[in-house]
Amino acid sequence: MDQLLQCAVGHPGSRHLHSWEAPGPGPDHHHGSCTDLQRNLPRAIFISIPLVTFVYVFANVAYVTAMSPQELLASNAVAVTFGEKLLGVMVWIMPISVALSTFGGVNGSLFTSSRLFFAGAREGHLPSVLAMIHVKRCTPIPALLFTCISTLLMLVTGDIYTLINYVGFINYLFYGVTVAGQIVLRWKKPDINRPIKVNLLFPIVYLLFWAFLLVFSLWSEPVVCGIGLAIMLTGVPVYFLGVYWKHKPRCFNKFIELLTLVSQKMCVVVYPKGDEDQKLEERNQDVEQQQPICHPPASKDKDAVEP
């Protein structure tokens, strides 16, 4: 995560300090050129995906081997039921393992979800305070707090399974849209810099499976999918209010400025420094070092008046 943050920080434009807008991908926007990331990210993907697939497949094989189909359907926690049948006195291992696995998933979601808000604010689609990081720890604290508040609001619902269905459908829908965007960009902008480039066969195969599962979900659970789409469309008014509407009233801008200032003081956050600002500071330091410490006094001959 430290490499990802260092390779994707924004630009601290002064005109964006107290506004809805945030620094965009201009000439000072640092998209990331870390060679270690270009080498380690594909390696992590190629190692983790086969490993996780192996574990999941053989775990399900173990469940099906030890339990009947009726037991699988009647169990609320298949892994716990599996442990009760086979582990005996060591049955307590399964609930702890499930809790640790859930904690790991939540930990990863916290990093990725907050980064989505951070990147959206940096592009000007969310209030600019969400694009700020802590002055010492370099963590996007406002984005993390925003993720926490939105998560608590979603937990207000009484039925957790309905919430899982809503969130799962929306996430799955955006996964496909994101992968489709990769194909569109490869077609419309073939010459842009791509630090990591994959064969188009992978996104095309993914989109085929994605379309099949999406149509199946719409056919089997039309009400849940419809409510999920309605929840997703609630972001349209926010887009028109914050992004599309350019000439906002002064009271609205004052409120955003006050909110940004208070958030900066409470969280001790600022905009990350871009490459151009770092170069400018280094250039100024070099100029100061090249200047003499003391200037020689003016010559008396220059002050004398010729007769």
Order of helices and strands: HHHHHEHHHHHHEHH
Biggest sheet architecture: 2 strands, antiparallel
Task: Average the pLDDT over all residues and give the rounded result.
Answer: 76
For the secondary structure, the number of strands is 2
Percentage of residues in helical conformation: 55-70%
Tertiary shape = globular
Roughly what fraction of the amino acids lie in strands?
Answer: under 5%
Describe the structure.
- The chain has 307 residues and is mostly helical.
- The protein is built from 13 helices and two strands; from the N terminus they run H-H-H-H-H-E-H-H-H-H-H-H-E-H-H.
- Helix 7 runs antiparallel to helix 8 (201-220).
- The longest helix has 32 residues, at 35-66.
- The chain starts with a helix and ends with a helix.
